[in-house]
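Why this split exists: single-chain examples teach little about how molecules sit against one another. For that reason, every record in the complexes split bundles all components of an assembly together and asks for one structure covering all of them. Below is a record exactly as it appears in the raw files.
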Amino acid sequence: MKILKSKILKGGFLNSGNEKEKTNPKILEIKKIVLEKIKPKKNEAEEMKNFLNDLLRVSKIIAVDAEPLIVGSMGRGTWLSGDNDIDLFLLFPKGISREELEEKGLKYGKKITEELSGKYMIKYAEHPYVRAEIKKRNVDIVPCYKIKKGERIISAVDRSPLHLKYVLSKLDPSLRDEVRILKQFFKGIGVYGSDLKNLGISGYACELLVIKYGKFENVIEAISKMKPGTVIDIERYWKSVKKVKEKFKNEVLILIDPVDKNRNTTASLSSENFIKIVSKTKEFLENPSIDFFFKKKKELTNEELKKIKSRGTKFIGILFEKPDIINDILYPQVRKASERLSKLLESHDFRLIRKCEFVNDESNKVYLIFELEFWTAPKIEKKIGPPIFVIKNSNDFLSKYKDAEFGPYVENNCWVIEKERRFDNASSLLKNFLSKDENELIQEGIPSYIAKSIQKEFRIIEHKEFWKTVKNDKELSSFLKEKYFEKIKI
Amino acid sequence: MKILKSKILKGGFLNSGNEKEKTNPKILEIKKIVLEKIKPKKNEAEEMKNFLNDLLRVSKIIAVDAEPLIVGSMGRGTWLSGDNDIDLFLLFPKGISREELEEKGLKYGKKITEELSGKYMIKYAEHPYVRAEIKKRNVDIVPCYKIKKGERIISAVDRSPLHLKYVLSKLDPSLRDEVRILKQFFKGIGVYGSDLKNLGISGYACELLVIKYGKFENVIEAISKMKPGTVIDIERYWKSVKKVKEKFKNEVLILIDPVDKNRNTTASLSSENFIKIVSKTKEFLENPSIDFFFKKKKELTNEELKKIKSRGTKFIGILFEKPDIINDILYPQVRKASERLSKLLESHDFRLIRKCEFVNDESNKVYLIFELEFWTAPKIEKKIGPPIFVIKNSNDFLSKYKDAEFGPYVENNCWVIEKERRFDNASSLLKNFLSKDENELIQEGIPSYIAKSIQKEFRIIEHKEFWKTVKNDKELSSFLKEKYFEKIKI
């Protein structure tokens, strides 16, 4: 295990400070203030406890052949004040069929909700489950198989009870607040949540980090020294770092799940966000501030607007209504659409500098933003054909372009023609493309919900109109501020 | 030989007419007119004959241990009226040393010139020789080794006497005028001469084509059906076309030298010019005209100027004094310089559509012309760095660009920064580059004579000034007219 440990402690980018220091008193003070704000107060905790007890009592009566269990941060005692989402799992024995599991899960879920005078709806993840609203709290009632550590999971959620068991057995209750503070830190810097919107760090991963490193400041210290490909294997399942890295290739942080050695708990952390957590922890250690935990969104200043415009590039935004779907479907679709359109632009010789996507949950708008090196192209387009020695292809090329505006001529032994360009500016290209009907858009690689929304309505904003929109949309403005002006500490 | 023959006769691009027709009477008429203009008149031929006789008589007396011989088109009887360049070769036995050959060659050359009251200078090719001006005629007096067919040549010019011998033995004197007409045709379309300026067809190759195909119109017919990689092997040295093509890979026309099976007589024909001869012969056969032989240079019309400008591209010209060197050195250097500058432009993100070079022999100016898709670039330049997983390279990149204007940030698992671009327009980039001193220019890949000339003075012309220059320089204008508006017949 020496290998692993030394790997973890090695310095990150451009940093080699290795000595351990005593906790900065300022950090202790900040932790106190943060905890004050995020730890459930006594009465809030009491109310929650009572609610959960009621829930479990009723569940035990109704779900006769299952074992009810509160999982998630509620169960693990690391929830934050204001958290209102409860995961009630019903653990069934491995013997029953999938159909029975799903059927009973729904039946019991409905009954439990009714018994507690709640309302419910059916939600679908890997299998259907009941989402209940009971006494203004959201309760997900999810059936799963009861498995033991080391056994293969049957349904996707079967690991949750094992996670609960592991954390309860390993996390000293005195460290629960450290988990809370760590979660709030990740929230503050925008990387909390391992869902497909946030591509960040889950609550469970926070707990594991505290189990591994101890107090909040120790976790922060450890992260600040990490480099891409860091391996953390708390239970020391793996004998060699090399093997781990081979298995989890190109994953920036490999935090082996203590209940499943073949699972990386931080698999969904994006490289961008990994660099962010390393950078932000460094920054925090150098200059601790409460602002890291409760980040106020700031818009672009006039100075910054000027600087961004002085890049001499062209911004084009595509706006459309946000489809009414869950984030785990929305965000991948938004990213894919953005990718497809950037390919379209580049295939028509409009070179991109950057692209980004922004979803404004308040105004329900999606923005796809492209920053172009050029947004107009010459009227003429050069097409390089086959080598003159390849007769068949030459004939095809020459007959295809026999009416070309200029040429054919020969350059470097290849045929060349020049023809009129259909789209000599980027926005007319985008407009033409996006005006296709829904099915065509889907065939062209735009994901379904995005295609549907775009077909209903879209707008292209560029030049002055783009910057006017940025000025009017504070969320968008602060999104761009972060994208263009946040400095990485390295 | 059936294989070779069928290869040659196979249709060219987009053409498959195989039937032989009788010569178009219009072509016969044109040939007559052309010959009238280019065939030396009786008195011109008489004068030349007398001059050559004098020359040979004196040479025999002076070059006691060598055999004087008139080679080239004068010797082969295919010279054109007005030709004034005479090649007098002195053939020495193979036994003598290179030093002796050179020494005696110069000594005899000088004596011959003096005896005939001429002036001389020493010129250098592979070895030194005498260039004499005798009675207003240019006579190159060149020593060489007398070798037999099949023997390896010792000096570069040893083949010439064998060429003479071959042509005299194979070319029916009645076909000499056909050679003259063919040469004039190639002159007219601008592909006569296998030197490094013209990259076209030599006089000797013209003779071989007439030996192979007969009359002018038959040669034209054969060429019009050629495709790149055509093999002509008059003496049937090679057993397989495949082997020939392997040996002369990427050569567009392979005309095996009857005195050396391993030499392609048309090796220096460029692919551009090959396509031109195929296209022009087609055009001529479809629409015969005297204009092919005596091409009047035509300038760009206002209509064409408008069309060229409507391409929406940007033209930049670099002008400098033509260095006083022979074409075989000048043209490769001009092309290399143009190539180097186009690489410079592209490496700074200014994309080229076309480039061309033009030497105006009247005004002694060289023009390097670049047609750009864009000639300005944004202020900001994106640099994509190494993958974040490669720690060493990442550190290097990050420390190198730690003061970048924007970034670092992570995109597709790689580091990215954006820095201010030093040159945001093409002409300032070129100006900066060309203002280096001579040695720097040479180190940067600009050939020596070009570097020297540029260092003395250069001008960059763009936009209106470029087009003004084109209007004022008729030669340049007709050069561009041909480049942009000549249609290839395929």
